Amino acid sequence: MSLDDVAAYVGLGKRWLYEQVRSGRLPAMLIARTYRFRLSDVERFLDDFRVTPGSGPS
After folding, report:
1. Which end of the chain has fewer CB atoms surrounding its CB within 10 Å, N or C?
2. How many CA atoms lie within 13 A of 54 on its CB side?
């Protein structure tokens, strides 16, 4: 997936996603100076933000 694909898939901005890649939180591959992502890595990254019932802000 390209960065544009991931941004559309998760509904977040590309700048924020770049920050996540640079910080090492979101795995990416750099191919021909373009970031590429595996869907499985994106899904695993999103799981880190999962909120269980009762644990969110009040």
Report:
1. C
2. 0
